[in-house]
Write a sequence for this structure.
């Protein structure tokens, strides 16, 4: 698997693409190691692993973005089990997490996730990849357009490109800036997990942007805050009534 | 179906139309819509839908039912107008629930 600085993306299948595997060893070293990683000699009261597990639990239980995604995945036949489908690990660089399609697992970088809000966003982002994997034949490893599509969706719907987050990154813009952010972050994500040049990544993003930016499943809207996410969840729970009465 | 007789009811509870209309008109939503689309949102359709919903609740108006169905179908069509990049699955991936390939993952 590989990731992007402050970004995350799906990982290639182990053994299939040696080049990608080499890159992925460097970012997610624990993924291919034998035996469990040992805790540090001087551990704080809570280790990074424990903090990661606690924050993950809180996210899964309380965050409305995540609760909708979990519901939608269950409905699509991919019920999520915390122990099976999530893994808190140390990662190299400043990657926050990744989705490993080959093992159907979301990796959370316990050494890089800063706080609860960050955990919420990372889990939302990776669950969008997992949701895409569950509902569609996404060719993560050999089709750059598929990868681009999922990254566009994840950047668009997870809150990655919220006005506040962009301001913190010192990216100032208002009118339609969201779309610029989504494009840029999708390209960054692709470049981190694929050994291709920027023009190829840009071209793939441009080609699929219109379709994928407007694919808002399972939210039905771009959720800008928890209220939006709650309304989206309410609509999702109401979908039987909705579709049988239009 | 929408034209089916006695069992029809509005696709959303009237309270949901009211909540969406109110959200649409909020300052926060105006800001977010401008940030995403570069223009102001239009909220008139939510107001019309709320009025239709209430009219149907009070008088079982056929016109209100027609108007609501038309509005919601337009929303669904607008959401589906772009062809998908990938093919949808008919069943979930087989390996989703299988145990991890490597045994040393956290137990």
């Amino acid at each position: 698997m590989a990731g992007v600085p402050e970004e995350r993306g799906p990982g290639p299948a182990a053994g299939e693409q040696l080049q990608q595997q080499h890159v992925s060893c460097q970012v997610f070293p624990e993924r291919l190691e034998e035996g469990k990683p040992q805790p540090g000699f001087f551990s704080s009261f809570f280790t990074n692993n424990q903090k990661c597990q606690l924050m993950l639990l809180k996210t899964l239980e309380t965050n409305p973005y995540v609760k909708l995604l979990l519901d939608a995945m269950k409905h699509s036949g991919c019920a999520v089990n915390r122990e099976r489908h999530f893994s808190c690990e140390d990662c190299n660089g400043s990657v926050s997490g990744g989705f490993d399609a080959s093992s159907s697992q979301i990796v959370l970088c316990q050494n890089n996730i800063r706080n609860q809000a960050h955990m919420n966003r990372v889990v939302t982002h990776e669950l969008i990849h997992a949701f895409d994997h569950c509902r569609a034949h996404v060719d993560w490893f050999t089709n750059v357009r598929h990868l681009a599509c999922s990254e566009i969706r994840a950047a668009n719907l997870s809150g990655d490109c919220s006005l506040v987050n962009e301001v913190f990154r010192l990216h100032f813009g208002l009118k339609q800036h969201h779309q610029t952010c989504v494009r840029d972050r999708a390209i960054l994500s692709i470049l981190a997990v694929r050994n291709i040049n920027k023009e190829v990544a840009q071209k793939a993003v441009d080609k699929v942007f219109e379709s994928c930016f407007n694919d808002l499943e399972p939210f039905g809207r771009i959720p800008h805050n928890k209220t939006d996410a709650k309304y989206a969840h309410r609509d999702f729970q109401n979908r039987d009534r909705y579709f049988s009465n239009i | 179906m929408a034209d089916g007789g006695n069992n029809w009811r509005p696709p959303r509870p009237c309270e949901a139309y009211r909540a969406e209309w109110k959200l649409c008109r909020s300052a926060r939503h105006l800001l977010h819509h401008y940030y995403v689309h570069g223009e102001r949102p239009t909220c008139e359709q939510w107001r019309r839908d709320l009025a239709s919903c209430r009219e149907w609740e009070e008088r079982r108006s056929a016109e209100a039912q027609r108007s609501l169905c038309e509005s919601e179908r337009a929303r669904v069509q607008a959401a589906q107008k772009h062809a998908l990049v990938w093919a949808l699955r008919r069943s979930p991936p087989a390996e989703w629930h299988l145990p991890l390939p490597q045994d040393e993952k956290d137990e």
